[in-house]
Design goal:
By secondary structure, the chain is mostly beta strands. Among the domains are: 2-18 and 32-64, no CATH class; 272-356, no CATH class; 364-539, no CATH class. 9% of the residues lie in helices and 38% in strands. Strands 33, 34, 37, 40, 41, 42 and 45 form a 7-stranded antiparallel sheet that branches. Strands 35-36-38-39-43-44 form a 6-stranded mixed sheet, covered by helices on one side. Strands 1-2-3 form a 3-stranded antiparallel sheet, with helices on one face. The longest helix has 23 residues, at 2-24. The protein is elongated and about 185 Å long.
Length: 542
């Protein structure tokens, strides 16, 4: 520091001298000598060198750069670790200055801490890391919860006739631990089932009765063959099972009198019996019909008739003192209106039917209050020619929404004193039919024990039935439904006889074949009634 101060003072003095010389003297073409070191430079501090003009004596100086340290190699003083940095030093060979520098901290030496999978009953650990040198935990291990057992069904096995079985069990599908042990089921032993024998027929072998296990199918008693009896059938005469209709084949049957073998043959369907229904002109009160064609055997319509509206009355008016008389000019129908004053000009409607007489229409109150089915509205037991007690049940059929869909009526006569149902007739007058229609009855069930005849109300509105009514010579008064559940056909076989007639005051006409829609139920089996006949149970269709 002392050297530097002295050097600074010299420089200041020299600068002043030069300045004053320059001011007093003229400009000199200097002739400087060599540089002379005035202040030597060291490692850190620059030095000073000067030179003097030989003409004017001017002194010029210049700085000498510091030499800089001449350090040796770095030497480790404190070794670096993974927890702290180290220290290294070096020394200047000129001035002896010591310089130190930090050695970076070493990285940790990772060591894997292995994880452990969790089991059904023990916790696990995630994988971790630590330094193998200092032991510091770099990645901590986390516990893994135990998983619990995973159930696996050990299927059972049913015991058989000759082998034991096993109950269903459970085990853990991961560790294999048995959770529910299986237990042995004892063998069942064989379950006998009869293999029915078959009698030998005239032409076919038979079989003795045998036995087998119904579970495993093992044969316990083998069946043996029985040879045929005669080698040929002894047939009875052919009997009619189902008559042929216009569109459906019939069926005949014969039986072997020895072995009860049955042989059947079909009868070809009959041809339609075409009948022309003549046209009917309308009247004042009743509609007419166009001509049509139908089959008298099956009732099928080929050319439909169309209704012609009634013409309506065309009344002329004749006035009298206390009444006015109206006479139809077309049909002659007449009626009167009475009055006490002078006749008043009035005209009846031109298309109104004649006023009904008081005797022709029963009072509605009387019909409503009538408890029985009336004189012709009864059930008759023909063998005794007497009315039979009966019960009427009503049933309402609802749709899915709960609304009324149909109303059904069941008529259930009582059996006779022997507890039997024999021959019954249901008499349905037109008044009763109108009452049922007003009550919106859709179906009438005529029930005799395990026999039921379903009578849809729609069949009373068929076109074929209207033709029959118009063709009758006598005025119709109603219908007769005949049922005999104990009927016997010409072969002596029992079945149910069914017939439907339209009745007049003097006779009855069979209309069974022209009112399709009657359904016969015998022991829960359904048969479509095609004609008046004895219907066998084995011919029913389910």
């Amino acid at each position: 520091m002392k050297k530097i101060s002295i050097l600074a003072l010299l420089l200041i003095a020299l600068s002043l001298a030069v300045s004053f010389g320059a001011m007093g003297e003229e400009v000199c073409n200097h002739n400087f000598g060599q540089w002379n070191i005035r202040v030597p430079a060291d490692c850190e501090t620059p030095g000073v060198q000067v030179r003097i003009c030989s003409i004017c004596g001017r002194v010029e100086e210049e700085a000498i750069p510091a030499k800089g340290h001449q350090f040796g190699n770095w030497n480790e003083r404190v070794s670096a670790t993974c927890t702290a940095p180290g220290i290294q030093v070096r020394i200047c060979g000129v001035c002896g200055k010591v310089e130190e520098e930090a050695i970076p901290q070493l990285p940790h030496t990772e060591e894997i801490l292995p994880g452990k999978a969790a089991t059904c009953t023990e916790e696990g650990l995630t994988e971790g890391k630590r330094c193998s040198v200092c032991g510091e935990i770099l990645v901590a291990q986390e516990p893994i919860p135990m998983s619990g057992h995973t159930e696996e069904i050990l299927p059972g096995k049913a015991a058989t006739c000759m082998e034991t079985g096993l109950t269903e069990g459970k085990r853990c599908s991961v560790c294999g631990e048995i959770l529910v042990a299986q237990e042995t089921i004892p063998m069942n032993g064989h379950t006998e089932e009869i293999l029915p024998g078959k009698a030998a027929t005239c032409t076919e072998e038979g079989l003795t009765e045998g036995k087998r296990c119904s579970v495993c199918g093992a044969i316990l008693v083998a069946q043996e063959t029985i040879p045929p009896t005669t080698g040929a059938h002894t047939w009875s005469a052919w009997t009619l099972v189902r008559a042929a209709t216009c569109e459906k084949e019939g069926l005949e049957q014969r039986k072997c009198t020895v072995c009860d073998a049955v042989e059947e043959k079909t009868l070809p369907a009959a041809e339609h019996r075409y009948t022309t229904r003549p046209a009917v002109n309308p009247s004042c009160e009743f509609p007419g019909w166009t001509a049509g064609v139908y089959c008298t055997l099956c009732g099928k319509t080929f050319v439909a008739t169309e209704q012609i509206p009634a013409l309506g009355h065309n009344y002329s008016v004749e006035k009298h003192t206390n009444y006015t008389e109206y006479t139809c000019e077309r049909c002659g129908n007449t009626y009167r209106t009475y009055h006490s004053a002078a006749p008043v000009e009035e005209k009846p409607p031109q298309n109104e039917p004649s006023a009904p007489s008081q005797e022709s229409v029963p009072a509605k109150e009387e019909v409503a209050e009538e408890e029985s089915m009336g004189e012709f509205q009864s059930i008759v037991f023909d063998e005794m020619n007497d009315a039979v007690p009966y019960q009427v049940e009503r049933e309402t059929i609802l749709d899915a929404s709960g609304a009324v869909q149909e109303n059904w009526l069941s008529i259930l006569p009582q059996p006779n004193a022997m507890g039997e149902y024999k021959l019954y007739q249901l008499h349905i007058s037109f008044e009763l039919l109108a009452q049922w229609q007003e009550e919106e009855i859709a179906l009438v069930k005529f029930v005799l024990g395990n026999v039921e005849l379903d009578i849809p109300m729609s069949l009373f509105e068929t076109e074929n039935l209207q033709w029959v009514m118009e063709d009758l010579q006598d005025e119709a008064i109603g219908y007769i439904i005949t049922l005999n559940p104990q009927a016997v056909d010409q072969n002596g076989d029992k079945g149910c006889f069914v017939r439907m007639d339209v009745a007049t005051q003097f006779s009855a006409y069979d209309i069974t074949s022209i009112v399709p829609g009657l359904l016969l139920w015998q022991d829960g089996m359904e048969t479509v009634v095609l004609e008046s006949a004895v219907y066998m149970r084995e011919n029913a269709t389910v």
